[in-house]
Amino acid sequence: MLLESTTEAGIKDCLGYSLSTFDATAKDYGTVDSGTLPTLSSYFVGAYLNIINNAPKPDGKREGAQAVALRVSGDRSAFYGCNIFGFQDTVCDDRGNHFFKDCYIRGTVDFIFGSGKSLYLDTEIFVEIEPKLTVITAQARESSSEDTGYSIVHGKITGTEKGSFLGRAWKSSPRVVYAYTEMTDVVNPAGWSHEMQPERTKTVYYGEYKCTGVGASSSGREPFTKQLTEKEAEPFLSLDYVAATKWLLPPPMI
């Protein structure tokens, strides 16, 4: 059963889905601990869930208004067909190897963030309008020696925003790749942000490979980003990116 407010927030047809809601914010519990659904164990599998943080949209005036919907802190975790709703900091992709397939993630600022190593496959990312700034990813790798990052493959970027960044250098060495992803005009022509810290242009790894749509045009991209070759993209394109052939369980049949 869907709450009226979640229908208004834009949930697609989710009949038969389980619903998890909460309204905690960073002011209440701290950002990481504000999640509606925190998963801390390894081998967690979530399927066909609506995971929603109902806290009010941050207005730039209230301190600590960011609010997590899903926090994934366990290793070898998978999510199938889940709808994850929030505004700022929707998904805390905290740590460990994770796999998302056929999911729908909605937010405004840094709404996929953290130090996880994750593969997002066939997942739609919806950017909701925000007057000041919208950013999809804030991956938190701090050194090239850290084996973390996000690979978003066969995805789709939609929304009501115009000018959203694919990622920003929240930490010094984030690694994010989009491959075979359809990008609408939601995406900022520059693509990526170094967070007004030019020194980070030397340490970020931001790549794109065979993406499509008007938002995927490389003509206006920042020079510190990469249009990957086939060889460069290959490690990001398979389940081996998160070693999933060793642990991945199929989605349950319902």
UniProtKB/TrEMBL annotation:
SUPFAM superfamilies associated with the record: Pectin lyase-like
Entry keywords, A to Z: Aspartyl esterase, Hydrolase
Top enzyme class: hydrolase
Highest rank taxon of the organism: Eukaryota
Domain Pectinesterase catalytic span(s) in chain numbering: 26-242
The protein's annotated pathway: Glycan metabolism; pectin degradation; 2-dehydro-3-deoxy-D-gluconate from pectin: step 1/5
InterPro entries recorded: Pectin_lyas_fold, Pectin_lyase_fold/virulence, Pectinesterase_Asp_AS, Pectinesterase_cat
Entry's Gene Ontology molecular function annotations: pectinesterase activity
Active site: residue positions: 110
Catalytic reactions on record: [(1->4)-alpha-D-galacturonosyl methyl ester](n) + n H2O = [(1->4)-alpha-D-galacturonosyl](n) + n methanol + n H(+)
E.C. number: 3.1.1.11
GO BP term, pick one: pectin catabolic process
Record-linked Pfam families: Pectinesterase
Family label: Belongs to the pectinesterase family.
Protein name: Pectinesterase
Species classification: Eukaryota, Viridiplantae, Streptophyta, Embryophyta, Tracheophyta
